[in-house]
Specification:
There is one protein chain. With 382 residues, the protein is α/β, with parallel strands linked by helices. The chain has two domains: 136 residues, Rossmann fold; 184 residues, Dihydrodipicolinate Reductase, domain 2 (2-Layer Sandwich), CATH 3.30.360.10. The chain contains nine helices and 18 strands. The strands form three sheets. It has a nine-stranded mixed β-sheet. Strands 1, 2, 3, 4, 5, 6 and 7 form a seven-stranded mixed β-sheet that branches. Strands 10-11 form a two-stranded antiparallel ribbon. A hairpin with a 4-residue loop joins strand 15 and strand 16. Helix 4 packs parallel to helix 5, helix 5 packs antiparallel against helix 9 and helix 7 packs across helix 9.
Length: 382
């Protein structure tokens, strides 16, 4: 057995997502299982090098996990033993850091959105292409158990002709006055790159694109339901970014996808994210982990009568898609694919061009809301 160490500069992992999902549940989890084995017997051993602007926080995190660290990105990028640059910073800080990593010849794996706007996202993709480095964007929702089960139904032809997709995502993010908010305050400041459309539309783009087809048009309405919030220090501030987005996406083949995203909604569903897919032969509801389905032959015959209480147990009329496999952490699964891509040239399709599609959809969604009209989504020119 040959161990192949891959050193990875990780920038922005003092934040919740970067720390918990990418560092602890992905790369450190890979180390705990003995590394990532390849078909030829080689074992990939990820070696994180933590980077960040707050030296005390980065040092504390590195010492907790026994990892190397540095407060200086330039120094880390100048190290020839570092092969991959990973970025989970706030969106506004991502573009200049990724540019530096490309110039240093590092392979790239970055969170979404990849940049603040389409022009910047395309510039990063072209720079990476010209530099000949491998590049990837986190598209974790595709690897969730619920959506993998949904894909199983799609691949098996269960739905017949898909008609529509309905998505509900969100939860109540506390304002921060009498209960601390569950999300960082920058999410609600447009000047810092915040906003739910910029955050979630890139997710919806790759989910719709991969499962149902490319988005061809969008009509959206974004709003700020809660204009006043309190930051981490308890100081009130004006929320300048949208905290809810309601959108209709038109896909290839006439499929319509309606997705609501909100940080100002109280949850009355089984999971924080759910998609209902309706087709000529059957329907399914997929969440983060579960997926239930109802076939055409088993569809009941509800009768509308508002004068009598409904006695039908609608939820009980659906069947559960079985696991039939063990589902690992969605972030870890994609990290494994990217590491195989870098070391062994394994298959990979979730690159910076795919990330740019997501930025474009968010940009068009915000523009659609501002102009109050439906906008076409053109093909992306590389």
């Amino acid at each position: 057995m040959t161990r192949r160490t891959v050193r990875i500069a990780m920038n922005g992992v003092t934040g919740r997502m970067g720390h918990r999902q990418h560092l602890v549940r992905s790369l450190l989890a890979l180390r705990e299982q003995g590394g990532l084995p390849l078909d030829d017997g080689t074992v990939i051993w990820p070696e994180p090098v933590l980077v960040g602007r707050s030296a005390p926080r980065v040092r504390a995190l590195a010492e907790r996990h026994g990892l190397a660290w540095s407060p200086d990105l330039d120094t880390v990028l100048a190290d020839d033993t570092v092969e991959i640059y990973f970025d989970a910073q706030v969106t506004a800080a991502r573009e200049p850091a990724v540019q530096k990593a490309i110039a240093a010849g590092k392979h790239l794996y970055v969170e979404k959105p990849v940049a603040a706007g389409l022009a910047q996202a395309l510039d990063l993709a072209r720079r990476a292409q010209d530099a000949g480095v491998k590049h990837g964007v986190v598209q974790d929702k595709l690897f969730l158990p619920g959506l993998r089960k949904l894909r199983r139904l799609l691949d098996g032809g269960f739905f017949g002709r898909v008609l529509s997709v309905r998505g509900e995502f969100g939860y109540w993010v506390f304002e921060g006055d009498w209960q601390p908010a569950q999300r960082p305050s920058w999410n609600y400041r447009a000047e810092d790159g915040g906003g739910i459309a910029s955050d979630m539309f890139p997710h919806w783009e790759y989910v719709l694109h991969e499962l149902f087809g490319p988005v061809r048009a969008v009509q959206a309405r974004v709003t700020t339901h809660l204009p006043r919030r309190w930051d981490e220090s308890g100081t009130p501030y004006e929320a300048t970014a949208d905290d809810a987005a309601y959108a209709l996406f038109e896909l290839d083949g006439g499929v319509l996808a309606q997705i609501n995203s909100s940080w100002a909604v109280r949850v009355h569903r089984d999971e924080l994210l759910e998609f209902q897919v309706d087709g000529t032969e059957g329907s399914a509801v997929a969440g983060l982990r579960r997926c239930r389905f109802q076939h055409r032959a088993g569809t009941p015959k509800p009768v509308w009568n508002p004068d009598l209480p409904s006695t039908e147990p609608f939820r009980d009329q659906w069947q559960e898609v079985p696991d039939n496999a063990e589902f690992d952490n969605a972030f870890k699964v994609q990290w494994e694919l990217f590491l195989r891509h870098v070391v062994a040239d394994g298959p990979w399709q979730w690159d910076l061009w795919a990330g740019a599609r997501g930025v474009r959809l968010a940009e068009l969604g915000l523009r659609s809301s501002a102009e109050g009209r439906r906008l076409p989504v053109p093909e992306l020119t590389r």
